[in-house]
Design brief:
This protein is mainly alpha-helical. The protein has 3 helices and no strands. The protein has a domain of 37 residues. The chain is elongated, with a radius of gyration of 31 Å. The mean pLDDT is 77.
Length: 84
């Protein structure tokens, strides 16, 4: 009958709604920080630019290379001394 078909349709919709709610609850419990992720992209913190830098824009704070020639045996001796 048409009434029975309507009842079954409503029941299916209710079950689908329950499945959606269960998935939402499961996702929030298994990955509680997932809701925080979108806010990380819009923050004005250290990574507000998405972690990108320009070409060589941050090279001015690099330490200059040392002009010291070190042999392999010197490095091995330094490593052994550090391990002691």
């Amino acid at each position: 009958t048409p009434d029975e078909a309507d009842r079954r349709r409503r029941q299916i919709e209710q079950l689908q709604s329950n499945v959606y709610k269960i998935k939402q609850l499961y996702d929030s419990r298994m990955n509680p920080r997932a809701s925080d992720r979108p806010s990380l992209l819009t923050s004005a913190g250290a990574f507000a630019d998405g972690g990108t830098t320009g070409w060589g824009a941050d090279d001015d704070d690099d330490d200059p290379p040392l002009d010291v020639n070190v042999t392999v045996t010197d490095l091995k001796a330094q490593n052994e001394a550090a391990l002691r």
